[in-house]
Amino acid sequence: MCRSAKEYRRLFLFLGCFEYFSLWFHVIYHPKSLLLILLHKITLVCAFLLAFGIGRAQTDWKLKAESGGIKIFMAPVAASRVKALKVECSFDATPAQLVAVILDLDACSEWVYRSKSNILLKRISPAELYYYSEVDIPWPANNRDFIAHLIVKQDKKTKVVVVDAPCVPDLVPEKKDIVRIRQSSGRWTITPVNKTQVKIEYVLVVDPGGSIPAWIVNMFAAKGPMESFKKLKLQLQKPAYRNVHLDFITD
Description:
By secondary structure, the chain is α+β, with helices and mostly antiparallel strands. Helices cover 31% and strands 33% of the residues. The chain folds into two domains: 5-57; 62-241, 2-Layer Sandwich (Alpha-D-Glucose-1,6-Bisphosphate, Chain A, domain 4). It has five helices and ten strands, in the order ααβββαβββββββαα. The radius of gyration is 19 Å and the shape is globular. 25% of the residues are buried.
């Protein structure tokens, strides 16, 4: 679930104190590495602000589109030029079926809007992995790519499943003519309604980076989520996921 603004302020204060003393340590003992340290910390702060923005945006959601039981909301994000996206819907599926689809990287391009390729980089456990993805962007803009860290957790009492997907931009080198997305934070919240239905909330804040025409941004914001979730509904009905069982998910 989204943390409160007060919790984020406390966390930000703690991180700020830690980073202050860490910075001075490098100034005194490792001055040559100072530039690399500063660049790394700037990336961390940007990622934190995106995560903070998701929490702050939760009270300002405005409905932008609705079709077939799928609702698309948008909200401003603090300290960011982008808006947060939220999708709400209910599908006939179990938590395990939905998680299986999300983790099936080979089939992501079948339902994720303009997804060109998805490659597993590292599997930590059945419920945690890192993967690389390239997004097909219409001309004249360059394609985008990102590295996501997928972490699946379930509350054993409520059976609510949360899938976090922060980006890890420097895990692999950047590619020529592809713009690396460096600021992105996504979260799936999957709540069982009964034995055969789940309620889904998906929240995403992403800065595409670089220069990109407004019409492309608007296309991805308005059209992309709706098309993805309509295809996700169909994807869940495929035989490959019909009787799926995951050891780390209790339906």
